[in-house]
Design brief:
Layout (H helix, E strand, L loop, with lengths): L3 E5 L4 E4 L2 E4 L5 E5 L6 E3 L12 H14 L4 H18 L3 H15 L3 H9 L2 H11 L3
Antiparallel strand pairs: 1-4, 2-3, 2-5
Helix pairs in contact: 1-2, 1-4, 2-3, 3-4
């Protein structure tokens, strides 16, 4: 059997196709066998008030698709445009790998994989922003 395996901590919440599911008191493991199910761990969710940087904005668009709050076709255009803008600022080889993976995932309709690739850029963005702040 293939598919996604979610390992959930006690009381952890996950959004699956628009339904919030909360784990019980013990660790558990769920196998998601439905292809293209929209899944988002709520601990990984970016809240609207936290969408205050370029990478977070692009991540949030992917997250809206996963939560069912955005039309995938419309969001894909915004995602690809956002990734292109990020690629003009993040030119190092490691960032390119993540941006290329995100682009391919969006083109394949794999919004979770796109979000995962984009989230990998958040620490780098934080370091760049911190380096520009006056001391």
């Amino acid at each position: 059997m293939s598919g996604l395996v979610l390992k959930l901590a006690p009381k952890e919440r996950v959004l699956i196709n628009g339904a919030v599911i909360e784990n019980g008191d013990r660790r558990s493991r769920l196998s998601i066998v439905t292809p293209n199910a929209n899944i988002l761990r709520l601990r990984d969710a970016i809240h609207p008030g936290e969408v205050n940087t370029p990478v977070r904005r692009v991540c949030y668009i992917a997250q809206l698709v996963l939560s069912g709050d955005a039309d995938p076709a419309e969001a894909d255009l915004q995602l690809l445009r956002g990734i292109e803008q990020l690629s003009q600022a993040l030119r190092d080889a490691d960032s390119r790998v993540h941006l290329d993976a995100a682009t391919e995932a969006v083109r394949d309709g794999q919004h979770y994989q796109a979000l995962k690739a984009l989230r990998a850029l958040l620490p780098r963005e934080e370091r760049l922003i911190a380096a520009r702040r006056p001391q």
